[in-house]
């Protein structure tokens, strides 16, 4: 697998047409994806972004992605609702499930809020099977996100890779638990809306435990999201907005009668150093997916170049994108970085 970068749409099309034996995954903004999709490139999966990750680090407006031997990967469309695609998903998984280094790249529609539904459709997969995923973005326009298989627009897609090299999957949080917990006492999981914490209006109680004015709550969402505890690990649920009835809508599901941790930000540069210092092998290729809220934080603090330096020091043959949500194995989360390493 090799990362690729292109200056413009024309260069991308010309390069791909000379590589009939290769297949490609390409990440770009919505407008570039639309143009590429009309070029009849049958050996390409396209995914729209809110920023791209290249072998030169974070970019906004780049065209990037990777090429791979066509016989090492299988692309499967995930229809809506996902259960329609169950038999094709089972068949794709069957072909790779005995390879401990096989993995899947999951590309979800970024605006339908269906990531958890897609992941539950994978009930037949072993929990240890590596899934790295990202929800397609549209640079915060929240209008449309795009995924194409060739020139055919699809709802979502998964690529199964029967890797011949060692692989490893990593999740990184730049948040740590505080002493504060909240009990979700009323929530609508379908709309990802929490109505009450601790039997009190969600916004009122969230602000109280942070020690801030309720009117200023949304200013603290980026640095104080909530954490779902699963198997002694933290999966972040990012608040999207406070509603008129003081309920809060999130970017991932929160379940009634469960506790969530109020989180605080830690030093992102120190955290990425810890992550890259613990890699089990020197990777020859990496896919890196960062949440849009994580990217915005890095932009506001002016630290993307510092983050890039640590990631690219670990592996220069790197690609990826900035997403509207991240998938790690069978879990969906926000404000996270997920990395798939190939030796």
TrEMBL record:
- What is the designated name of this protein? FIST domain-containing protein
Question: Domain FIST, which positions?
Answer: 20-201
User: A Pfam family in this protein?
Assistant: FIST
Check the record and name the SMART domains matching this protein.
FIST (SM00897), FIST_C (SM01204)
- Lineage of origin: Bacteria, Bacillati, Bacillota, Clostridia, Eubacteriales
Q: Where do the FIST C-domain domain residues begin and end?
A: 202-330
């Amino acid at each position: 697998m090799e990362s690729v970068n292109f200056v413009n749409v024309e260069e991308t099309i010309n390069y791909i047409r000379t590589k009939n034996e290769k297949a490609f995954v390409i990440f770009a903004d919505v407008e570039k994806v639309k143009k590429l999709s009309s070029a009849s490139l049958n050996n390409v999966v396209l995914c729209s972004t809110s920023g791209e990750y290249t072998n030169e680090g974070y970019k906004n407006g780049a065209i990037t992605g990777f090429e791979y031997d066509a016989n090492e990967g299988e692309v499967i469309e995930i229809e809506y609702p996902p259960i329609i695609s169950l038999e094709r998903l089972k068949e794709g998984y069957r072909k790779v499930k005995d390879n401990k280094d096989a993995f899947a790249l999951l590309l979800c529609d970024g605006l339908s809020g269906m990531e958890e539904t897609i992941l539950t459709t994978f009930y037949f997969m072993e929990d240890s099977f590596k899934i790295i995923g990202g929800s397609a973005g549209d640079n915060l326009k929240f209008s449309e996100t795009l995924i194409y298989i060739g020139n055919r627009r699809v709802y979502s897609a998964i690529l199964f890779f029967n890797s011949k090299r060692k692989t490893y999957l990593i999740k990184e949080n730049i948040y740590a638990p505080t002493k504060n917990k909240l009990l979700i006492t009323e929530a609508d999981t379908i709309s990802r809306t929490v109505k009450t914490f601790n039997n009190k209006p969600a916004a009122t109680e969230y602000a109280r435990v942070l020690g801030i004015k309720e009117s200023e709550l949304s200013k603290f969402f980026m640095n104080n999201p909530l954490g779902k505890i699963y198997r002694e690990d933290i999966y972040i649920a990012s608040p999207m907005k406070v509603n008129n009835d003081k309920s809060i809508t999130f970017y991932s599901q929160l379940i009634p009668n469960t506790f969530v941790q109020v989180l605080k930000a830690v030093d992102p540069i120190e955290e990425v150093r810890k992550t890259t210092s613990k890699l089990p092998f020197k990777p020859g290729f990496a896919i890196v997916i960062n949440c849009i809220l994580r990217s915005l934080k890095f932009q506001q603090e002016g630290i993307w170049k510092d983050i890039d330096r640590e990631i690219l020091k670990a592996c220069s043959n790197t690609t990826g994108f900035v997403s509207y949500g991240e998938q790690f194995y069978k879990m969906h989360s926000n404000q996270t970085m997920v990395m798939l390493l190939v030796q």
